Amino acid sequence: MAAPELIRVRLEPLGRLLEVERGAPLRDLLFAYGVEFPCGGHGRCRKCRVRLLEGRLPLTADEEKILSAEEIAAGWRLACRARAVEEITLEIGQWELAILADDSAIAFTPRSGYGVAVDVGTTTLVAQLLDLATGHVLGVRSALNPQTVFGADVMSRVQAALSPEGLERLSSLIRDAIGGLIAELAASVQVEIGEVVLVGNTVMHHLFCAIDPEPLSHYPFRPSEEGLKNYRAHELGWELPGDPLVQFLPCLGGFVGSDILAGILATGLEEAEALCGLLDLGTNGEIVFGNRDGILCASTAAGPAFEGGRISMGMRAATGAIVEASLRNGSLEFHVLGGGRPRGICGSGLVDVVAAGLELGRIAPSGRFTDASRAWPLLDPVVLLQRDVRELQLAKGAVAAGVRLLLGSLAPAKPERIWLAGAFGNYVDRASARRIGLIEAPLERISPAGNTALLGAKIALLRTTAGERDFSALRRKVRHVPLADHPDFEEIYVESMLFPPA
Hints:
Layout: E1 6-12, E2 16-21, E3 24-25, H1 26-30, E4 49-54, H2 61-66, H3 69-73, E5 76-78, E6 83-84, E7 88-91, E8 114-120, E9 124-131, E10 137-144, H4 154-161, H5 166-189, E11 195-200, H6 202-208, E12 229-232, E13 245-248, H7 258-267, E14 276-280, E15 284-291, E16 294-301, E17 321-328, E18 331-336, E19 344-345, H8 347-360, E20 375-377, E21 383-385, H9 386-408, E22 417-421, H10 422-427, H11 430-435, E23 446-448, H12 452-463, H13 472-477, E24 478-480, H14 489-497
Parallel strand pairs: 1-7, 8-11, 11-13, 14-22, 16-24, 17-19, 22-23
Antiparallel strand pairs: 1-2, 3-6, 4-5, 4-7, 8-9, 9-10, 12-13, 14-15, 15-16, 17-18, 20-21
Helix pairs in contact: 4-5, 7-12, 9-14
């Protein structure tokens, strides 16, 4: 058999030169170098655009429909559709990992050995190596979740897992990536790891554990009721000295995964005397309210607007993103991550801009632009469209409705503290979030909580033994509330989409 014909693909500004098979799909080549595929490579979101600098990259019929004539003339192509048929030079944008690591001190009983805590995020994987005798963090490794090539949201990955051999591929991808991070950590300080604790949302739990996610693909969205999952490293294909025990903590119900169980541990919510809340805001918004007497939890499909998804010029919080906007003397001032000319707007910037639009009277409580236009130029070339505001309304309405319903099921007392978890929760401006009606609480009661998933995984690793990590007592205290089953959910959801009046 003849050897495959190789051609060269140069990536700028990285200065990388790749040798690839002629005809290779760009999707398979570019993911490792920072090109994202939020819609799973279906040619819907246009976020995988790359620019042809030299050579020839034939247009596909899909690209001719999706890209404008001006974009095509400027050399833009969709990486999810193009193939390398001859030597080319491409300009690509890089992703930067916005990692919420954690270095919080934890009270625990020391023991000998080393362990790893892992936050299996939908977008980002973070692993911390801990000395179990001191609690000190000896190393941190992170990576983009390789499943992102199948879509930025969990439901895209559920659908991909339902295809022939899909679950096996998605499971292998995530296991190999995490195993690689742990191997790097162990080698960096030359220690033998005894235990690994992982947390993640329900879909990440199912895909890592190779559990059929079909029940999560349709109503009533019932996950596997399996609790703590135990493995030895070799069962996952990890060649680690000592073959450590690997444990994925159990989910709480529905789309409320072990990352929220970890969040409850991290905030001490299950031990609190007063009513407290925890909001983890992303494509899937998880909501928890309660105290030591009992806890209610729910999940709501907020959509990807908080992470820049489905926004016309939306992007992650990477270089070139408008991350903040504030009013100064009646005019908007912007902060662009990394300085320079903006490329788009991320979730925190979007919330700021809409909050400012409400204050300026540019946006009505209904969400409509008051000047009857369909676009609001922000900072050239970034423009906010009417449909972008609608996407934010859908997201904030889902979360606000969930909060109202859970609080309505509890005592009439107001929450003493509401913690905001995850990247969006930590970076969103509290006043802007309150102005758009995302959170209805005094600002002094709202606090960013950092990476509660990673902190909770560390607490589980340091404070408990392997046999105690089913957390059965805590799980009995938690009741999952399926919001879609509530008779008032649709009505409250529609009401919650409106913005508060000035």
